[in-house]
Amino acid sequence: MLKVFYLLIAWLAVLLGTVGIFLPLLPTTPFILLAAILFSKSSPRFAAWLEQHRTFGPLLNDWQQHGVVSLKAKCSATLMVAISAGLMLWMEVPWLARIAAGTCLLAVMVFLWTRPSVKNSSR
């Protein structure tokens, strides 16, 4: 049952990642990375398909083999985090929720921006 749940969420992530190719405010990379993780837990066949995909395969291989997140993906994620933070400040969100969400968003940004943007050829 858990494998079916992972499979459904993975396909939803692929769908959102695909839409993100065409919508500049929807990031592709996090959704495809999520799909890869969930496919690896639910379907080796779909995991292999995603790793060999002509659009998503290079992104996954860069991450899995080199720990690289492209500059475009970092900028897109940063824009989304800024929009999310701005919406939280504008809306009637309790202060504790703002602090918790802001801490999580900051942690994500620190993690993301400390990853390399290009492959290191000396590895």
UniProtKB/TrEMBL annotation:
Superkingdom to which the source organism belongs: Bacteria
A Pfam match: DUF454
Parts of the chain that traverse the membrane: 5-25, 95-114
Keyword match Hydrolase: no
Main localization, broad class: membrane
Record membrane topology: Multi-pass membrane protein
Keyword Transmembrane helix: yes
Gene Ontology cellular component terms for the protein in this record: plasma membrane
Subcellular locations according to the entry: Cell inner membrane
Keywords from the named record: Cell inner membrane, Cell membrane, Membrane, Transmembrane, Transmembrane helix
Protein's name according to its UniProt entry: Inner membrane protein
